[in-house]
Each structure stands twice: as structure tokens, then as C-alpha cells.
Specification:
about 120 residues, mainly alpha
């Protein structure tokens, strides 16, 4: 069992999100893709990052996948909130709590699947 596998899972989430954002920016600059579709694409990248990071956390932990996956997702969401606060002066709101809950749930499901693989 690895110590704090959710930290490793969060690292994977951040890496996947970074690569996804670079790909989206490249596609936007090279094609005629409309920016109106951008939120859906970004949400998809975040969902994939959360699920895969949760999966990796659960697989590394080999037990309590929901906990380790969920903690990875929660840490990821908190980091995104801090970045939004520092970079864009976004105020904290109920929407952030819902984001944290959703991130926990999606990555917890990934962690459950990761433990059982």
C-alpha cells in the first residue's frame, strides 16, 4: 500500500487537465471550433481527469478506493478553487461547495473501480 495515494491521483488529475487544456487551445487556434462549445469540452476534460485520477488513487491504495479517490478529487477541486480565487479574484460561493461534492463523487467512483481492478 502506497502512502497517501490520493496525492498521486491528484497529480495525475492536474497533468491530465493540463494536457487537455493545451489540446483544446491548439484545436481552437487551428480549427473553426466555436467558443460556445468550450464549456462542455472543458467539463469533459475535468470529468475524465477526476475519474482517471480517482481510479489511479484507488488502484494504488488497494483498499478504501472511494475514500482515496474522493480525497484526490476533493484536493483537485480545492486547488482549482484556490487558483480561481488568486488568479481571477472569484469570491467563494455555494457553487464551489457543489463543485467539491461533484469532484469527490466522480473521483470516488473512479477509486471504487480502481480498487476492484
Amino acid at each position: 500500500m502506497t502512502r497517501m495515494p490520493w496525492v498521486i491521483g491528484t497529480g495525475f488529475m492536474l497533468g491530465i487537465a493540463f494536457v487537455g487544456i493545451i489540446l483544446i487551445a491548439t484545436i481552437l487556434s487551428l480549427t473553426s471550433m466555436s467558443e460556445a462549445n468550450l464549456p462542455y469540452v472543458i467539463y469533459t476534460v475535468h470529468l475524465l481527469a477526476l475519474w482517471i485520477g480517482g481510479f489511479i488513487s484507488g488502484k494504488r491504495a488497494q483498499e478504501k478506493g472511494w475514500y482515496h479517490g474522493g480525497m484526490a478529487g476533493l484536493l483537485y477541486a480545492i486547488l482549482l478553487t484556490i487558483i480561481g480565487f488568486l488568479a481571477f479574484s472569484l469570491p467563494f460561493s455555494l457553487q464551489h461547495l457543489l463543485l467539491w461534492l461533484g469532484a469527490f463523487l466522480v473521483s470516488a467512483v473512479g477509486g471504487i473501480v480502481g480498487v476492484n481492478r
